[in-house]
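Notes taken during the Thursday session

The instructor put the following on the board and asked us to keep it in front of us for the whole hour. The protein is TIGR02234 family membrane protein. We were told not to look anything up and to reason only from what is written here. First, the residues (213 in total):
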Amino acid sequence: MEYVTAVPHPRSEAAGSARTGRLSLAVALLCGALGAAVALLATRQQWSQGTATVAGGSFPLTANGSDVTGVPAALAVVGLAALVAVFAVRRAGRFAVAALLALSGAGTVAAALLGASDSSALDDKAAEVSGDTSAAVAALSHTAWPYVAAVGGLLLLLAGALALRYGRLWPAMSGRYERGGAPRPRRSAAAGDPDRPEELWKALDRGEDPTGA
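Then, after some discussion, the predicted structure tokens were revealed:
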């Protein structure tokens, strides 16, 4: 009679872990790279627009994401660097870098959402154009690009969460090309054959009797 056991086979568990590691790695790389690219692209687009009163007329003003805040772009670069650095470290170092990646994504989301309703950049431009430091922008409106930057931050946050959860299953950079600290052993010179003619001549040059016992 054959017995069926519910205990999983170690080999199947290892295969499942490897499959999970590969899948999570692919998703994290895609989300991290795409999130950073989206956030950087969004900060270069127009986030808000309005008008300033100049000499009795209206002067149109616009502000890009980089004019409103430089935080999303800076954190996107940090997140991208952390995504690459995940593979250069192990254990506690990998956990720390993964946490930095997640925090970069969360910070990008927060900064983008705060900038979605910001008017200070246009107020500064209105004061500069009108020459009045107390001038404020009128007819203020915002675009959807701050929310696009927030989506990029969410992708970075997802990549960081995957690195925190499955990073231990991911491969690390090989140490084959690292130079070890221990000095390489020197090859000892091969002992010469005393019966060879060149060895006999060398012995004669040294003043030795090659025929002596």
